[in-house]
Every structure is written in structure tokens, then in C-alpha cells.
Amino acid sequence: QVQLVESGGGLVQTGGSLRLSCAVSGRSIFSFKSVGWYRQAPGKQRELVEEITNSGGTNYADSVKGRFTISRDAAKNTVYLQMNSLKPEDTAVYYCKVVVFTPPEMHFWGQGTQVTVSS
């Protein structure tokens, strides 16, 4: 069974930085079709922030281009999201998600971590 545990959220001022962590258990993070970060602000739909595929390609929201970076640590089986130059509009609950290859495709989510950026 795949389990995800996020950490690293908190309160930060505009322009500050945070690094989110997603510790994965049950499978190697390199065995997944993709691993990624999503976020959901109050009253809005959950949206992709950035993901990295099994082949190493990345997809990301235009709003975070040049500011956020996703990475993987094989030794710790952990996925990170480095967030720089944070803005109030980045305020949301951030979720880690992994996608399993084998059909049917399965998605696993973490419990979420709150990020609040004050102006």
C-alpha cells in the first residue's frame, strides 16, 4: 500500500521561500508513472503545481514557472517542492500525488499541508 506524508508548510511573508516534502512508503518513487504537487485554495478547484514523470519530464503551472522546482531523493524516497519568491496567491493547501502505472491506473494522495503567504 502506498502512503504519502507531506510536511514543510507554514506561514511565510511575500518573497519568502519554503520547501515541502512528501515522504513516500510502499514503493520506490521512481517506480511511479508520475509524482507531483497539487494545490487547492479556498473556493477553488485543486490544480496541478508541478509534476515529474517517470522519464524525468516535468509539467507545471505557468504561475509557478521559474519560482518552484520539484525534485526527488532516491535515498529518502521523498519528493520535494522548493518554492521561492512566494506570493499571496500561492496560499493554499498543497497535496502530493503519485500515479501508479499498472492498469487500472491508480492515484494516491497525501493529507495536504497548508501554505500561507502574507502580504
Question: SSE layout and pairings?
Answer:
Elements: E1 3-7, E2 10-13, E3 18-25, E4 34-40, E5 47-53, E6 58-60, E7 68-73, E8 78-83, E9 92-100, E10 106-109, E11 113-118
Parallel strand pairs: 2-11
Antiparallel strand pairs: 1-3, 3-8, 4-5, 4-9, 5-6, 7-8, 9-10, 9-11
Kindly summarize this structure in a few lines.
This protein is mainly β and 119 residues long. The chain has no helices and eleven strands.
How would you sum up this structure, described in words?
With 119 residues, this protein is an all-beta fold. It is built from no helices and eleven strands. The chain has strands at residues 3-7, 10-13, 18-25, 34-40, 47-53, 58-60, 68-73, 78-83, 92-100, 106-109, 113-118. The strands form two sheets. Strands 2, 4, 5, 6, 9, 10 and 11 form a seven-stranded mixed β-sheet that branches. It has a four-stranded antiparallel β-sheet with strand order 1-3-8-7, with no helix packed on it. A hairpin with a 4-residue loop joins strand 5 and strand 6 (58-60). The protein is globular, with a radius of gyration of 14 Å.
